[in-house]
Each structure stands twice: as C-alpha cells, then as structure tokens.
Amino acid sequence: MKAFVVDKYGKNGARAAEVPEPTVGDRDVLVRVSAASINPLDKMVRNGEFKQVLKYKRPFVLGHDVAGVVTRAGSAVHGIDVGDEVYARPRDLRIGGFAEFIAIDMDDVAPKPASLTLQEAAAVPLVALAAWQVLVDRAHVKPGQKVLVHAGAGGLGSTVIQLAKHLGATVATTTNTDTEKLVRDLGADVVIDYTKEDFSKVLSGYDLVLDSLGGANLEKSLTVLKPGGLAISVVGPPDADFAKQLGAPSFMGLVMYVLSRKIRKQAKALGVRYQFLFMQANGSQLRKLGALYDSGKLRPVIDSTFPFDQTLEAMAHVEQGRTKAGKVVVSMVPDND
C-alpha cells in the first residue's frame, strides 16, 4: 500500500513509499483510510523532537489523525464491526494515518459523528482530545470560570473555545484581524488582536490559560492568572509527569524536571501553576466528543483539503504558516471539498 513514511529524522525525513499492509492483532481493527489531517505533532515527530521518549522504529508511517471504514476486526474486538465508519487518534508508537490502511487498537477508535463527513471527522480527534484533556481532565473547568486560549483560530484553539463555552466558561482568545469574526462566531467572549494589543496588559484574573506558542508567550500567560490559576502548554517545556506518562526511564524524568524548572519557578513566584500536556489516545472520550459534534455544540474548522498524493505538500502548507484557520485535511477522495 502507499504511505508516507519517516526513514530519517529531520525536515526532509518524510517520503512516499510502498509498504506492507499492517498486521491486525486480536484487539485491532483494520481501517481503510478515507481522510487524515495534519498536526504540528507530525512535524515534531518527523524531526525527532521526541525520539528520546518515543522510540519509533524507522521507517514508520506518519499521521496522528484518521477517519475511515473498518475492513477487518480482530478476534477480541467488540462494539465495532466491519463496515463501520470510525475516527481515531491512534496511540503513540502506533500512528500511521498517512496511508491507505491502518491497524488501530479498539480502545482508540470511536464511531464517526453522524453529522460529519469522513473528511470533517479526520480534522477532529487530536485537537478534540487535547481540548477535553485540558479542560475536563486537568483543569476541571466549571461554569463562570475564565479561560484564555491562545491562537483561537487554529485547530486546537477553535476547538477549545467551543468546548470551554459548552462547559460554561467565559472565554478569551488571541488572534489576528482576519480571523476575529471567526473566533467570535465560535463563542469567544473577549478577543485580543495580537497585532494591535498585548494580551498581558489587558487581561487578568483568569483560572486557566492554554498556551500553544511557548517561550515569551507562555511566560506572559502566567501573569494573567489569578492566584492558584493554571497554565497548560502543549508545546513545552515538558515536565517530569510527561516522562512518567510515556513510561520513560527515570533519568528522562529528571531531564524534563530540569527543562521545566525555569517556568515552574516563575509560576511559583506568581502563586500560580504550570503543567505540560501531551494528549493521549482515548476512544471513549471520542465517543463523548462525537455526541457534542452531533448535537451542534462543536464543529470542525477546516482550512483546506489536499489529495492524498499531496500529503507532503499539505504538511509544508502547515509548516510554512499558510493556514488561515483550523485544520488541513488530506483526503483519499479526489477533489473533495
């Protein structure tokens, strides 16, 4: 089958290749891929940024989001049948959405939301799971709390705005002039145009900040939190809990403790908290999220769709910052909109 694989780490490490169809274990479903989507994580994994903790055996197929049709099910699989339309963010070390077929553990798969096309569904899993794990699992967001999400027009930001509003929060976001209307339509109560204003000068008393930019943006984010507030970053620096989550050797936990020491020290001085989030595959959460898409509480935002043969061009589109809003989708269906 045709796939896009990483055979060496680095910017030019991904290429098209012919690879064998994946082996299907007792707990796996084999999915014929209809669509996948591009995430910043694809670039990070391709570049080897997590190679010390995610021990991929090269060559491996890239792609963290997938939607498609089940063509085979292992002997221990239940609740999923051949012919079902499903979507998933396959677990780490078993990714591979940029291929004609992928074998996925049944615990990572959920029925595709009925209201979404397969192409729309492919844009959902990673960002929706990350949003859920930030807002529900980590921050336990309650009605009336104040949430700031950076880059509100992006794939993750646009999802966080909608889910935070569903949970009853007051939501602020940063964006640019071109996407201000979009983020307001998604539910943002306070919109900061970062090309004109410094969010840290106008916001205060927030319960949660979700940062996807890192660096100085993360440091400034700490200052808008109320005492005891929480800043969560999806770009780092990673903390010791990340190493534990991945089952990495204990010395890696120490390395990550040191990497995050500066930001944790800054947070402590301000009386606030810092955490790093590396989202995890979770089919049961995708089922809950699917219900929110079907009820109209959430909707995917899609920037553009590329044919499967142009997967590398789709990745370049994202890497070069040409995405205006939402996700870039790769479709097996020619000329799909």
UniProtKB/TrEMBL annotation:
InterPro entries: ADH-like_N, ER, GroES-like_sf, NAD(P)-bd_dom_sf, Quin_OxRdtase/zeta-crystal_CS, YIM1/Zinc_Alcohol_DH_Fams. One of its GO terms (molecular function) is oxidoreductase activity. SUPFAM superfamilies: GroES-like, NAD(P)-binding Rossmann-fold domains. It comes from Streptomyces scabichelini. Pfam families: ADH_N, ADH_zinc_N_2. It comes from the Bacteria. Residues 13-330 form the Enoyl reductase (ER) domain. The keyword Oxidoreductase applies. This is NADP-dependent oxidoreductase. Keywords: Oxidoreductase.
